[in-house]
Amino acid sequence: MATVITLWWVWIAAAFVLGILEMVLPGFIFLGFAIGAALVGLAMLGPLALLSPAAILLIFAALSLVAWLLLRRFFSLPQGQVKTFDHDINDG
Question: Mapping DSSP to helix (H, G, I), strand (E, B) and coil, where does residue 79 land?
């Protein structure tokens, strides 16, 4: 039981690593996982610590999916639009 209670910091550390990975490879994919890991890590401080590891992973997957869907809904381009660039940053 002691190892399960102290496992919350692993989820928070994973959230930071996934957040940094999102900065390197943007696309809202890793950010959704980072949000899910952070929420699970915070919930592990409460009653979620008493659940089985399989249930915790299922909650992580569900929270990550919801976070990813919300990120795509609020931050993606409208349907059918494509991001285009008319000039290069090096153009004078």
Answer: coil
Query: Could you report the per-residue pLDDT of 43-64, keeping only the tens digit for each?
Result: 988 877 788 889 999 999 999 9
Structure tokens at 17: 């690593």
Stated pTM of the model? 0.76
Q: What is the C-alpha separation between 5 and 89, in angstroms, rounded?
A: 50
Burial-class residue 35 by CB neighbours within 10 Å (0-12, 13-18, 19+). Answer: buried
15, two tokens:
């959230």
* Burial zone of 34 (CB within 10 Å; 0-12 exposed, 13-18 middle, 19+ buried): buried
Cα-based distances in Å from 65 to 5, 6, 40, 91? 25, 25, 13, 40
